[in-house]
Write a structure and sequence with these properties.
With about 250 residues, the protein is an alpha/beta fold. Helix content is about 45%, strand content about 15%. The chain is built from eleven helices and eight strands. It has an eight-stranded parallel beta barrel with strand order 1-2-3-4-5-6-7-8, surrounded by six helices. α1 crosses α11 and α10 runs parallel beside α11. Bound molecules: 2-phosphoglycolic acid (PGA).
């Protein structure tokens, strides 16, 4: 049985004081939890978050890294740097990084390799736009993102990868993929990873759904066979709603 993994992507929200408040709210509510929980605050809150989460089971992740270790890359942050403040995870390939910051599949692949080389776990995001879904190319798009993103990733490294299927049209829009729509793509992803690697790897692969996951729709989504967790944006910014999603498992 795959353990469900619920991650909160805070995006560009929460200054340091707000972060401290949210983390303490989440920590206080972490009773009777059956899933793995990961928080991904902005860079400026990571070190404090790491201190506050010591001794808990809650994981800590950043929302991006650069693919080089060091260098003249003003404004960028490396895998080593986020590790040094206590991160175990990093979100890569988020659709906002792809669309707003022009990240290509090739760049995302380099970042994934760098993160893995630093023993970080990766939440690798993929997903189609509304236009692509309506033109019936969802599986082509998602398949290509997976093949290019995972190019050169060795089988033994796959245990450190979580795939997050996030239809772009469902992110921050209040529109969620139906459980059936999500399940169909999740199964496709699992089968594709099975072909690219093997069945053991695809059986163990955690595939999260993301895109307007809320307390009201979480349990139905999370009860689908191939939905192993959620990557939550808006609803993770309040302890109460994030905890309700965590407890929907
Ligand atoms: P949302 O964001 O839950 O606000 O739709 C999800 C995400 O972008 O990871």
């Amino acid at each position: 049985m795959r353990k469900k993994v619920i991650a909160g992507n805070w995006k560009m929200h929460m200054d340091l004081n707000e972060s401290i408040g949210l983390i303490s709210g989440i920590k206080n509510g972490m009773t009777n939890v059956n899933s793995k929980v990961i928080l991904c605050p902005p860079y400026t809150s990571l070190e404090t978050a790491s201190t506050l989460l010591k001794g808990t089971e809650i994981g800590l992740g950043a929302q991006n890294i650069h693919f080089e270790d060091t260098g003249a890359f003003t404004g960028e942050v490396s895998a080593k740097m986020i590790k040094s403040v206590g991160c175990q995870y990093v979100i890569l390939g988020h659709s906002e990084r792809r669309a707003i910051f022009n990240e290509s599949d090739e760049m995302i692949n380099k970042k994934i390799k760098k993160a893995l080389s630093e023993d970080l776990n990766v939440i690798f995001c993929i997903g189609e736009t509304l236009e692509q879904r309506e033109s019936n190319v969802t599986k082509d798009v998602v398949g290509k993102q997976i093949k290019l993103g995972l190019e050169g990733i060795a089988p033994e490294q796959m245990k450190n990868i979580i795939i997050a299927y996030e239809p772009v049209w469902a992110i921050g829009t209040g529109k969620t993929a139906s459980p059936e729509q999500a399940q169909e793509v999740h199964l496709f992803i699992r089968e594709l990873v099975g072909q690219l690697y093997n069945n053991e790897i695809s059986d163990e692969l955690i595939i999260q759904y993301g895109g307007s996951v809320k307390p009201a729709n979480a349990s139905e989504l999370l009860s689908q066979n191939d939905i192993d967790g959620a990557l939550v944006g808006g609803a993770c910014l309040e302890a109460e709603s994030f905890l309700a999603i965590i407890k929907a498992v």
